[in-house]
Amino acid sequence: MLEKMEKGFDPEEVIEEFEALTKDAKRVQVETLKRILKENSEAEYLKKWGLDGKTDTESYSTCVPLVTHKDLEPLIQQIADGATHPILTGKPITTITLSSGTTEGKRKFVPFNDELTETTMQIYRTSFAYRNREFPIGNGKALSFIYGSKQFKTKGGLLAGTATSNVYRSAQFKKTMKDMQTPCCSPDEVIFGPDFHQSLYCHLLCGLIFRDEIQVISSTFAHSIVHSFRSFELVWEELCSDIKTGTLSTRITVPTIRTAMAKILKPNAELAYKIHEKCLSLSNWYGLIEELFPSVKYIYGIMTGSMEPYLKKLRHYAGGIPLLSADYGSSEGWIGANVNPTRPPEMATFAVLPHIGYFEFIPLRDAGPLGRIEPRPVGLTDVHVGEEYEVVVTNFAGLYRYRLGDVVKVVGFHNSTPELQFICRKDIMPAINIDKNTEKDLQLSVEAAAKLLAAEKLEVVDFTSQVDLSSDPGHYVIFWEVSGNASDEVFKECCNCIDSAFVDAGYVSSRKVQAIGPLELKILKRGTFQKILDHYVGLGCTLNQFKMPRCVGPVNDRVLRILCDNVVKSYISSAFG
Ligand code: AMP
């Protein structure tokens, strides 16, 4: 493997390998589980469940229970605290990753090892190979809005950071990006800088300096790309001035970043003038990316799930440049690659790589009305098209039958491996009565109401929600930041529209009998969501990982306070009388 990496990789070979693996997905899964269990046969966790060296799928699912992060937390904590005995894995864990924690408001520790870096590269290479068939790129660079989080040592001396940072720091990452002809145009000092505002500014500056060579604009999640170009709107003149004079803005104070940028930034009045003219010629920044980067072939990042609300804005900035949705994974490991890159992001699917983990799927149809029926997961190749499932992962880094908390729908098969569509995170919206609204339902309701704003040439910059149980009956509160001012009539109409656009029968019937109170729409001051982002960054989350929490629970009191302190107007729905 190492030798193959040294020479670079041949996309056609990668495709051939993926095709062979997916034609034989059932056997590959059996083999993968065997490898995981053999490599970790000394782990106390596996011994405790009495596997006794058995590595077959039946014994595994009979002996080892389904778990959530909460169940494993004490064990992961022991590892982080420096326990030296083999707790979850045969070989000791030396690195811990921190999940973003933005959906639940609490960051989670997850074990990490080199196998996870390698599976990340396998996913990157696989989707690149298919992408490159449809959208070939030449030699060039990528403007990648990526950020390495600060790493720290746990009590036991293990290195801890976000999964993406662990990957960006690895030698394999640089090599793979080079092989894919998309090395990042920014120096490491910018990627790993201590202040993301300064890093973002310099990413933009590097992108402009290398504008003719930029082939791809990317980030892990689409939100970060939109956020970057929203920032561009505010600092473009300063960027032009830096390029004109060859002097970096005084807003950049980190010495390592200044030194690294000094090697790249030279006075170039002609370039500064060109960019300045282009920016002035745009109408409301439509087609900004296309204008700034003449060689760009596509924009790449995760655009599904909680990223869908940003697509409208991203399309606006992109102009005619295609948007290609990236793969599906988590801090706990990767799951599937987007091998159909020509599909629009809303339709993106992920073909599961059968050799990077052992996957099971809990059918949601048999969960029972309150999800109380004992879950009975099925294997990777036993899933049915059209059904929704919760994903269960067994990986090479000590997670066994781990419920990821994501809901996916099987929409087809790539050979014998399923193609998944990401639906939503599970249990994001707590029930008030018999309602079962999902994150996706909320997104669709907000989208429906946002159409009323579009008529006023306004847009929803971002949104979230809260379940308010302080009065009886409880009700939903939706928080909106809007790009400008609309009249009370329009906002009132939006409020009614959100309330009546929820499709869940439990919600609708509860609203009709007032078992759930009228929905409230609260309009926020401009910049509130930036404050929320800054709050998460302050906690150590990086922009790469950031996903706006779509429902803020009481444990997330700091975010609730930011929201409540910034409300400027409030409306109560009269949709149900
Ligand atoms: P993190 O816990 O910060 O590593 O984030 C991982 C989570 O991000 C996953 O469990 C999903 O909920 C979400 N996610 C990752 N990839 C995708 C994708 N392609 N589409 C939608 N959501 C995704």
UniProtKB/TrEMBL annotation:
One Pfam short name: GH3
GH3 C-terminal domain boundaries: 440-552
Keywords: Ligase
Keyword Kinase (UniProt): no
Protein's UniProt name: GH3 family protein
Origin species: Helianthus annuus (Common sunflower)
Family: Belongs to the IAA-amido conjugating enzyme family.
A GO molecular function held by the record: ligase activity
Domain GH3 middle: 351-425
